[in-house]
Amino acid sequence: MQYSKSTDYALHALIHLAQAEGRENIGIKPLAHSLGVSESYLSKIMSKLRQDGLVRSVTGVKGGYELARPPRDITFLDVIQVIEGRQELYVCSNLDSKQHRTYFAGPDEAPPQRHDQCLVKRVMDGAQQQMDRYLRGHTIQTVLDEAAAVRSEECSSRRTQA
Amino acid sequence: MQYSKSTDYALHALIHLAQAEGRENIGIKPLAHSLGVSESYLSKIMSKLRQDGLVRSVTGVKGGYELARPPRDITFLDVIQVIEGRQELYVCSNLDSKQHRTYFAGPDEAPPQRHDQCLVKRVMDGAQQQMDRYLRGHTIQTVLDEAAAVRSEECSSRRTQA
DNA sequence: GTTATTATGGATACTAACAATCCACAATTC
DNA sequence: GAATTGTGGATTGTTAGTATCCATAATAAC
């Protein structure tokens, strides 16, 4: 199980747009070149991001893309869900198997269960919630901030060396 | 992105074995039947679990599978890593793109970076760690316990009704 | 030892998702 | 009107996951 390359491209593209915030639109050409991916493929991804309201686009000369919201309001989870879809990490394909009856089995004449959710799924959903919470807490701005922090650290260490 | 059906089968199979702990080996036939999956396919999965030391197997008449460790020592993460492989959830395919140079870009004559890790990857690795920690904290025994809890709750509510 | 049973591993096939490209078209600036 | 730029449809190749079949090896029971 692994996130697709598309997600990778999308995240990096958004960061690139964020770095140019407020100045100008960025066309697919420089964007694709900067990420090292073909224009045709990246344009598909950008379209998705546009349809879901993460970026705006302008056609024609001087056109291109820009963020539709401030970087602080674009979470990693947002981006992932747009590209990968809002699907659950785990789906139990066994729901009508004997297995789940044994989980809850009282006497055979037991009434229909209220707890009809797979116990494995309960755990897996918990895991996904952990991850989602983390991804919701990190935004494009987070990366920008870290990049700035790294840069200033670099500079000071270089000054120390000299 | 989604966990494979194989992971689903593996988890349910292990729970099944755990429920029969210490009594007898369980053959592929009843196991597959109980999960609602073909014997041939499940046997591949069981082989993997054996190769990685999660179950033991005996061939021949009266053969079958049993857990190789107590249920408390088989974590969800163990099972997932055996089936899905120990791969990282996120791989940055852009490492040599302009993008990462702009993250850290001081003056162009800057020395080779120590912080050569993608900042996007840093976030994504953090997310995976959150999930892994959760999955490491839940075991086959966890499910057994919850199943018991649900059962007793069912019983008591049935008693109350009567 | 022979037979029936049971797991193992190799080979193979099918399918769906992902990755990638190309092209005709629409919108916009100059 | 011409050049530029994004959009969406169609198409193709590749890979991972799903699934099956069969020959083989190991073991218990007789």
TrEMBL record, chains A, B:
Gene3D superfamilies named in the record: Winged helix-like DNA-binding domain superfamily/Winged helix DNA-binding domain
PROSITE patterns, A to Z: HTH_RRF2_1, HTH_RRF2_2
MF-aspect GO terms: DNA-binding transcription factor activity
A Pfam family per the record: Rrf2
InterPro entries: TR_Rrf2-type_CS, Tscrpt_reg_Rrf2, WH-like_DNA-bd_sf, WH_DNA-bd_sf
GO cellular component: cytosol
NCBIfam families in UniProt: rrf2_super (TIGR00738)
PANTHER family: RRF2 FAMILY PROTEIN, WINGED HELIX-TURN-HELIX TRANSCRIPTIONAL REGULATOR, RRF2 FAMILY
Name of the molecule in the record: Rrf2 family transcriptional regulator
Native species: Paenibacillus sabuli
